Amino acid sequence: MKSGHIYVVQMCSGIHPEENLKQLAALLSQQTLKQPALVCLPESWLAFCQTPQQTLAQAQSNDDWIRQIQQLCRDFNIWLAAGTIALTDGQGRYYAASLLFNNEGVEVARYNKIHLFDADVADSAGQYRESTLTRPGDDIVTVDSPFGRLGLSVCYDLRFPGLYQAMREQGAEILLVPSAFTTVTGAAHWKPLLQARAIETQCYVVAAAQVGEHENGRQTYGHSLVVSPWGVCLGEAPAQVGVIHARLDLTDLHAIRQKMPVAAHNRFKSDFYE
Ligand SMILES: O=C(O)CNC(=O)[C@H](CS)NC(=O)CCC(=O)C(=O)O
């Protein structure tokens, strides 16, 4: 039965990729990484920019950063769920892309954030309009790994349970939710949403978060979380930069699914109306 070690890196990313990569390497160096290791990073960890135009410029020039990230996977012998990185669509916009690399630095999956955060929030930023230059993705992504079958999602996606049900139907066992939640919505919704997704799908949920006051003027909630398929929090980060570790064991997951087979009982599957 598959199992492994998950390391969730909570970052306070700034505008400059070089500094963010240094922050990541320093945090990983402080860990004794048990194998096999899956390292999960938050949304926009490589560059948390000030404007969509800055993010677009970043998206058009990050080939070299990606090569450095691939090298980091080999140096630390880790699988890396690389949060999100802005990647150009070649037509003047960018995707919020979540790339998964194996321990040889090979890209094994890519998910483009489907739901974009266009919302008004009672915080110092006030307005979020992610769709300004971001192109939304269309495809649901699940992929096998030494840890189990991973389902990829990003931040605001968390509010749309249909996506997670679809990943469950594709066999997902571990759902990844790299995020940069606002402090206001995070305090109100973050933990219950993550626990609900874990309980409904009977999956592990792993959510790496941005935290603190950022160079771009934004504030984020932190509280990175690992939730078991029973809804129990196996690890929760405080509101500061750092790494949390959890051991995932799919034996428990399959026991939970066997005792309460909600996926088989579900009458609202995607083929319900066919
Ligand atoms: O803009 C960037 O560089 C990084 N992207 C983000 O910070 C995104 C879009 S603005 N944030 C969210 O999705 C927060 C969702 C949230 O807070 C909620 O659902 O309550």
Automatic annotation (TrEMBL):
One of its GO terms (molecular function) is hydrolase activity, acting on carbon-nitrogen (but not peptide) bonds, in linear amides. It comes from the Bacteria. Keywords: Hydrolase. The keyword 4Fe-4S does not apply. Residues 4-250 form the CN hydrolase domain. PANTHER family: DEAMINATED GLUTATHIONE AMIDASE, NITRILASE-RELATED. This is Amidohydrolase. The lineage of its organism: Bacteria, Pseudomonadati, Pseudomonadota, Gammaproteobacteria, Alteromonadales.
